[in-house]
Amino acid sequence: MLSLMLRKFVPMTATLHRIKNFLQSAGFKKYAKRFGYFVLGLVALVLIAGAGLSIYFNRNKTEIMAKINTKINDNINGDFHIGDFQYKFLTGLPNFTVALKDVELKDKQWKTHKHTLLKTKEIEVRLNVWSLLQKEINIHKILINDAQIYLYKAENGYSNSDIFKPKKKKTPETQSDSETTIDEIDLNNVHFILDNRIGHKLFDFDVASLKSKVDYDGDDWKTDVFLDTQIGSLAFNTVHGSFAKQKRLKGTFAVTYSAEREKIDVKTEGLKIGSDSFDIVAFFNLAKGSALFGINISTTILWQNASNLLSANISSKLNHFNLKKEIDVNCDIKGDFNAEGDPRIVVQAEVHNNELSIPDGLLTDCNFKGIFTNNFKPKEGFSDANSAVILTRFSAKYRNVPLKIAQLSINNLEKPLATGVVNSDFDLPVMNEENTEKWIHFTEGHATLNLKFQFDIVNLYITKPRFIGNVDVKNVSFHFIPKNIHAEKINVKLQFTQEALIINKIAYKNKNNTIFIDGKINNFLNLYYDAPEKMVVNWNIYCPSIDVRQFMGVLATSQKKKVNTKKPSMSQQLRNAIEKCVVDINLKADKITYNKLTATNTKAVIQMIDSRLVIKNGSLQTCGGSINFSTTLSPNGKNYNFASNAQVNQVDITQFLKSFNNFGIKSFTPNNIRGQLTSNTDMTGMIHNGELVPNSTHGSLNFKVSHGALINFEPIVKIGKFAFPFRDVKNITFSDLSGNCKLRGELVDVNKLTISSSVLNLDAEGIYSFGRGTNMALTIPLRNSKDDAKLATKAERDAVRDRGIVLHLLAVDDGGKMKIKWGKKDKGKNKKEK
Q: Which stretches make up the AsmA domain (predicted)?
């Protein structure tokens, strides 16, 4: 290794020795001396030339200044003022450089509008020396530093730029090779304003640097313009605000001018506006009477960055939305600088696998092509009212539900209206993840929907969506938490029309019950949002067999939550409608069971209003007879209050009393009585766990039992032992058992009780208690009524009913037991007791 390094080092040392010898040689010193003389001579020549030009300027300053003034004044109609005029020694060689200090340029009407066209601390002008020596002014470069340029156009069409006189068209004979041109322009720290009051346009730029070198081809020219500026205003309509406000713009523009077309074309790639890059192609028409322009912008940019580049009337709306990833955008702007209002704006964007935030939530896996135009209907101008957003090939997931929309249109951005057709196909359990209210839980099921929709957008929120189309749900199983309802394997078909929501046949299974349902909701789309409490759901329900107690939970009250002042979610809106709507049910059931009651051929009209169950025109067959009834059932905590009116016709009284657990009566059992009951009741009470709460009933009862019998009925047995010890009071048949009573909890006001039997006749009135407090007056004829039933007519029976000796007894409470004693009813006392 060492030997290898030594072999490389020896040649290098020899090379350095040869270079040293060359630099110390007489030949090198001779040439170095001559080169030094050349450089000194060149510097001396430059100094002499500069000095000569300075002497020339000082001797001809007045003439040069006069010629510059003449050149400028020949081309303007206004006032041109120069504070001072200086020569800049050695600057811009080989050109002759002069500096115009404190320059002002004003048009003839400056005193009216007060806008100075040009005001600058310094304009540096570089003149061609050869032309200058020939007494001609040829400007090849202008540098403007620390200046203000204000281009103003009044409402009447006058512009302070009219200060420049139009050039006379040159003929070949008058064309001169020495005609003045400006080959290069350099601006530094220039504040530029274009204020067009006709079109309400305001462009305001703080130009840090602008550099342009122009190549001429006859009257045509082209240049690359480097621009570094801060945008104060880029307002095509000052009413709506500025584009790219307070953004830095930096880049190079390729600019060409065609004299024949009187048009400027501009192109730039990678132009920086803020932190984003843009490719721009533009044109500006300069023909007299025409100020048409067009700007096309392409970029890949974040949504928020793009929104912040737009005017306030657009960005204020777009800032309520956001796309997480960058999007490809193309914006095309075309208009007339002299026209009022906005230019035509068309924005196109491509979105792929993005996340779209909207005021109503978040859309994931989002794909679409979007178009914005402010000229949706070509003949109706450029305005928010004629603006539209059109999305095509839209697909996304909203709350895990996949959505596809072939085309979505949002028209009139003053009062936005969205229309389109949405399709979706998904498994229902995916909705559980986004159900923050936790009011329904799906365990299985599949849904497909095809809906034509229309909805308003108010304050950028979706409002009152309206649908026409179909929703098909298959094999859905769910738990409706507020009502503790479980459903399994249900198929649902919904049809939305302009007039109604039609629910096709639903097979609802719960435990051993199956219910077939179809229905209709008229005016659904209006009432659902504005007045769900007025929405009436018309159901047709058919039940082969149903256990009523298993469905009591439908009426359970939901726990009330605090009122949320924010806009309700779609889930909250649906739950609110379910809880507030009125449900009208036309019920038919082959078999109904309730506790021990079994009924057939049941029909009823049922309403569910604010958790109340209202049954109207109910009818059923049970216990060998029929019952017509109307009932209201209302939840009260864990209990239910009921109010009922019923007409019972010829039912077997024993079975009937057993079905209702003897209505809580302990003093006798259903086995004590037989016969066919006919009654009319109007009462209220309370139910707990499907059972009548003892002593909770209040109301009136009129009843009659025909073909009846009393078997071991304790009150009669006690009376019989006291008054008729030799008659069979344990087995009594009767031709008439009727009464008129008022129920007051555990007390019954017996207004009239009539018993016409095979053992005795009895009339009773007073108070009967299921507990304590019985006080009844009994009227009992002593005659044997055994053969009264053989009399042909009721009139005949009534005529002989009270003949003979009549006993007046009292049945009173004695320590919780009934005691029979002699006496008549004390009307005053009883009245007081009542």
A: 36-192
Q: What are phi and psi of 303, to 5 degrees?
A: -55, -50
| Token pair of 550 as six digits | 């298993």
> pLDDT per residue over 619-654, tens digit each?
888 888 888 989 888 888 778 888 989 898 998 888
Helices (H), 91-143: 110-113, 129-133
CA angle 385, 391, 397 (to 5 degrees): 125
Residue type, 336: D
Q: Residue 791 belongs to what H/E stretch?
A: none
Residue 252 token pair:
């190079």
Give me the count of residues in the chain.
834
pLDDT tens, position by position, 428-457: 888 876 655 566 788 888 999 998 988 776
**Angle CA 295–300–302, to nearest 5:** 110
Distance from first CA to last CA of the chain, Å, rounded? 131
* Local structure of residue 164 (DSSP, 8 states): B
CA-closest candidate to residue 731, choices 662, 783, 677, 786: 786
Cα 327 to Cα 299: distance, rounded to the nearest angstrom: 8
Distance separating alpha carbons of residues 401 and 391, to the nearest angstrom: 19
The span from the CA of 311 to the CA of 834, in Å, is: 83
26 torsion bin: left (phi>0), alpha (psi -120 to 50), beta (else): alpha
The pair phi, psi for residue 219, each rounded to 5°, is -85, -10
- Class of residue 188 by CB neighbours under 10 A (exposed 0-12, middle 13-18, buried 19+): middle
Contact at 8 Å (CB) between 694 and 729? no
Query: Rounded CA gap, 229 and 222, in Å?
Result: 21
153: β partners:
159, 196
Angle ∠(149,150,155) on CA atoms, nearest 5: 165
- Using CA atoms, how far apart are residues 213 and 188, in angstroms rounded to an integer? 15
**Cis omega (within 30 of 0) for bond into 94:** yes
By three-state DSSP, how is residue 569 classified?
A: coil
* pLDDT score at 169: 52
Chain mean position to CA 138: 67
pLDDT of 97 > 90? The answer is: no
Asked whether residue 129 carries a pLDDT value surpassing 70, the answer given is no
CA distance 607 to 615: 6
Residue 574 corresponds to which tokens in the numbers above? 């649906």
Which stretches does DSSP call E strand in 459-512? 461-480, 485-496, 500-510
AA identity, residue 235: A
The pair of structure tokens assigned to 138 is: 């040829």
Query: What is the identity of the amino acid at 639?
Result: N
CA-nearest of 823, 739, 729 to 785 is 729
**CA pair distance 625, 599, nearest whole angstrom:** 10
DSSP letter (8 states) at residue 241: B
What letter would DSSP give residue 182?
Answer: -
In sequence order, what are the residues at sequence separation of 6 or more whose Cβ sits closer than 8 angstroms to the Cβ of residue 289? none
Look-up of token digits 């002499």: 48
The conformation of residue 792, written as its DSSP 8-state character, comes to S
The Cα 605–Cα 540 span in angstroms is 9
Residue 628 CA to residue 616 CA, distance in Å, equals: 9
Whether pTM exceeds 0.90? no
